Structures
1.
Amino acid sequence: DTGVSQNPRHKITKRGQNVTFRCDPISEHNRLYWYRQTLGQGPEFLTYFQNEAQLEKSRLLSDRFSAERPKGSFSTLEIQRTEQGDSAMYLCASSLGTAIYGYTFGSGTRLTVV
Amino acid sequence: GQQLNQSPQSMFIQEGEDVSMNCTSSSIFNTWLWYKQDPGEGPVLLIALYKAGELTSNGRLTAQFGITRKDSFLNISASIPSDVGIYFCAGREETSGSRLTFGEGTQLTVNP
């Protein structure tokens, strides 16, 4: 296992289009997190899963955003009707249990909405 | 929402110099973490702190969990060019479960 894997690494889309990102966590990790990072800022929490259950969603996660983790393994983050303000790095992380020792992050998906 | 104030925003130093950066919060945290992020990559955990007053080292890096539980600092001694990157503090409140709040980062540049 080489860590948390995210695909694609880069995505350019036109405003109004839908996009979907995938995250494959470390295999034995039961918790999976999505964060968003804009230029010059730290990561901001979006949502997290314990196994297949989505336990918490940030107010940043508007109705256009949806995340799933159907079998408690990989997760997808979909953004519908993208806006230019959605341009950011979307980071996925995973942990075993409550993340008391911190998360392991993936390399992120860089989204550019034109 | 919760804000972490991280300073300085950027630092330009010569190789061999020591570096110090810090974070303060408006809330009490039960965990402080320090991450480093290279361009185009996700953050990588450097040091984790769990108790007020705790001082922990990882090679040339030393971090402390403030006594008030509202601050933390990171020191890097004898900097080298590969220390270049963005350093983030992150904290976890007692009531926030696994959710971390990140600072805005300190951009470190090391001149050889």
2.
Amino acid sequence: AQRVTQPEKLLSVFKGAPVELKCNYSYSGSPELFWYVQYSRQRLQLLLRHISRESIKGFTADLNKGETSFHLKKPFAQEEDSAMYYCALSGVSGSRLTFGEGTQLTVNP
Amino acid sequence: DGGITQSPKYLFRKEGQNVTLSCEQNLNHDAMYWYRQDPGQGLRLIYYSQIVNDFQKGDIAEGYSVSREKKESFPLTVTSAQKNPTAFYLCASSIQSGLAGANEQFFGPGTRLTVL
């Protein structure tokens, strides 16, 4: 079975501070990990995926297979980063995604 | 916004009634999905379909039914057997399994269902 855990339901930081949204997973094979974001009044959309190894909007995430984690990080948070963030896992290409519970990030001015 | 549309945006239902939520996509995607979004519980998969005329149960299929008669359409019926149907429902689609990028799912705007 595959499972994704986001331990923080709410996270609040000040503008310019570093932010880290935690994601842990359990899966017996080689997972594919994603971060999705939902801004207020907008659709859920893909932020980044681990195989791309990109930085999107200043966010990065590294897959740590030893710790089974895929934490999302940004060195300097901006107010426009305030949103709901979901970590998701897929076990096999094209198969279903399993989502975490989500973390609501608020960046205060 | 185009791509995936869901209707209606808001839906009210009396207890004991079935109701159907619409999901249409013009992205030529093979796979489509239905999720339920509840506060503090993330997105939970109800049903998914990877090809026309075929679909599989997700984690919380009880009380729901789907059909996939056309590639573009994947309607979800919430039946009276669903004990707690009030929720926000999201539809998504993705390209064919096995191809690069197959797992990126594109989401619709959602339908908020309230049972009165």
